[in-house]
Amino acid sequence: MATSEYAVPTDVAKKFKYEERLNNFDSVRLRTWRSTVSIRFVYENSGASSLDLEIPRLTFLPLTFPKLREYFSLRKDYNIALTTRNNEVVANHLPVGLLYDLYGELAVVPSNAFLQGFLRCQTLHDVSTSVWNAMKQNEFLRRYSIRRIQNLTPEQHERLETAFLNLTLSAYIEASQTLMNLQGLRYVPVRLYLTPTHAIQDLITPKIEGNASTISHVMKKLAPELSNLGPVGVDVIIHGIVIEWQIKLVDLLDEATYVDGWLYLTIKKSTLPTSTVTTVEDVRDSNLAQKDDTRPA
């Protein structure tokens, strides 16, 4: 059996704990790109001791698989899947930082992960393909066109891919200037995670009734029951940071998107007395019962 533990990230989430509110996103992108998550892997069928790795928040677990295969003496064709101690399969194609935001409240999850079975995202090529597909989907939803991606030259395509795989921020910004330009923006695609396996996806217009759209608008549209509790009862988290509900979505697009251009927001119960927390859970269950599941492709 293999286990993996998410410890507290060594940068962003240590400085900005969940209960803190951050409304200044200056240099958040830089901090996010530099931040890591500590993961411990243990494989009981191997004589090797546990393996502790510092994994960047914006990268993907499959990029660690060659090291896991080497360390635990696994065959090169051995497909790796990771599950939590509750036997929930961890989605390899989701960024590590998002997985932390989903599982990391107790700072010990996922644990009891198994290096067995099959999960479709296994190799560097798989990760690259997954990112490009998500990027194309995001670009189409933003502008109803992927012409900007299609118009990338082979050299631009290669530079951008190298930048997001190696997490080189300066090269990523330079290579993705065309895609990051907000001119012609029709919608802001948002994916709101209520649990690791349940997400709601929708499009938010950059402005509503003449005013810039905010997190509050996202909550009202995607999770109205939770929105009624307000920021006092519900935390909206991105990159381990609890964000103010009045933050503008266009500001998040500038500073807080993942490498595929998506805004992945996570809902957590606020640090409040048990009675209120229970109410949040009840509302969340009610919300899930009324919404269709959105499972990322």
TrEMBL record:
Residues 33-106 form the Autophagy protein ATG5 UblA domain. Residues 187-267 form the Autophagy protein ATG5 UblB domain. It is a peripheral membrane protein. It comes from the Eukaryota. It is found in: Preautophagosomal structure membrane. Keywords: Autophagy, Isopeptide bond, Membrane, Transport, Ubl conjugation. GO terms for molecular function: Atg8-family ligase activity. One of its GO terms (biological process) is piecemeal microautophagy of the nucleus. Signal peptide: none annotated. One of its GO terms (cellular component) is phagophore. Belongs to the ATG5 family. Involved in cytoplasm to vacuole transport (Cvt) and autophagic vesicle formation. Conjugated with ATG12. This is Autophagy protein 5. It comes from Taphrina deformans (strain PYCC 5710 / ATCC 11124 / CBS 356.35 / IMI 108563 / JCM 9778 / NBRC 8474).
